[in-house]
Amino acid sequence: MAPEGYLDVHCHFFPDISDEVASNLVTQLRAAYFMAEKLSDVQWSAEGIIEYNDHAGVAMALLSYVARTHEMLREGNDYAHKIVQNYPTRFGHLLALPTDDAEACLREIQHGDEYDEPKPDGYAVNTQYNGVLLSDARLAPVFDELDAQGAVVHVHPNAYLPGEYCKPSALIDVAFDTCRVATDMLYKGIFRRYPNIKFIFAHCGGALPALSGRLSLLGAESWVPNPEKLTKQEIESQLSKLYVDTAATAKTGLEPAAKMVGWNRCVYGADCGVPCSTWATMDENMRDVSAREAEAGVEQGTVRNNTWKLFPSAAKRADQS
């Protein structure tokens, strides 16, 4: 039996930072989101997240923060671990990896292994990090390690990229960033070579599910560069083995996502902890998850239960609350 309430796999946080660093972060977010106007927009507290989660029926949230420098990323991981130690039944942690440098990633994985209990519940990466795509061949040693662990890896788009056509990147650009990088990973054989990694793509997989039929139809044609010689059947098979979270996209994104990966690979994400999410939008998205389940005729709570199954250590801690 799954614990009562939801497990949120998509909960952002900001570490305890100085006003100067916060001011710089506001500047970055303005460029990408057009929304962070003051320091309070990037102020974060565990208690504030718990307050929302109690309201929404979220039992536990997995924290993730892929900072833009290796030093800040390490500090963020250590900060998140302290939060989990303080609230082990309310939070888990997806250890952030600096995927512009394979050796740095392996060092960070080792650093996470050295934490006292509770250990990280999985890993957090961005589709691209400091200009290096997640599909970059130089990351093979990292994927070797993650595959050996059978790790869960949450893939978030690079939301710091500036938006196109004077729109904030968080509106639609992130969906296409996810789709482009996931498609590149597919064609470079990453999903084929590392079948034990459980990749969760944020926001119902972005634009990927809606375009997965186009990939299936045209992706193995002779005019498409295909060094791994993927067949139509393998394209469909590899995409069906991915996971997606429901963050901020369930209304129209969950149905095509479930069609691509199956309902058993859809997990709950709230996109909590960032300026682009409010209590109202997260509540509406949670209602949309239930509505899509009802329309599809699947058992209510399927997405919720899927999420706990994917993170058994988190489920065990939540049961102790």
Keywords for this entry:
single chain; eight-stranded parallel β-sheet; alpha/beta; 321 residues; TIM Barrel; two-stranded antiparallel sheet; globular
Q: Can you summarize the main beta sheet?
A: 8 strands, parallel
SSE string? EHHEHEHEEEHEHHEHHHEHEHHH
Proportion of residues in β-strands = 5-15%
CATH superfamily: Metal-dependent hydrolases
Low-pLDDT ranges: none
Total domains = 1
From the N-terminal CA to the C-terminal CA, the straight-line distance is: 15 Å
CATH topology: TIM Barrel
**Helix and strand composition category:** alpha/beta
Radius of gyration: 19 Å
Average pLDDT number = 93
Number of helices: 14
Shape: globular
Describe what is shown at a glance.
The protein is α/β, with parallel strands linked by helices.
Give the SSE map.
Layout: E1 6-12, H1 19-33, H2 46-56, E2 58-64, H3 70-86, E3 91-96, H4 102-113, E4 122-126, E5 128-129, E6 132-133, H5 140-149, E7 152-156, H6 173-187, H7 190-193, E8 198-201, H8 202-205, H9 208-218, H10 232-240, E9 243-245, H11 250-261, E10 266-267, H12 279-296, H13 302-310, H14 312-319
Parallel strand pairs: 1-2, 2-3, 3-4, 4-7, 7-8, 8-9, 9-10
Antiparallel strand pairs: 5-6
Helix pairs in contact: 4-5, 9-10, 9-11, 11-12
How would you describe this structure to a colleague?
Helix 3 links the parallel strand 2 and strand 3. An 8-stranded parallel beta sheet has the order 1-2-3-4-7-8-9-10, with helices on both faces. The chain has a two-stranded antiparallel sheet with strand order 5-6. Helices cover 48% and strands 13% of the residues. The longest helix has 18 residues. The model has no long low-confidence stretch (mean pLDDT 93). With 321 residues, the chain is an alpha/beta fold. It is built from 14 helices and 10 strands.
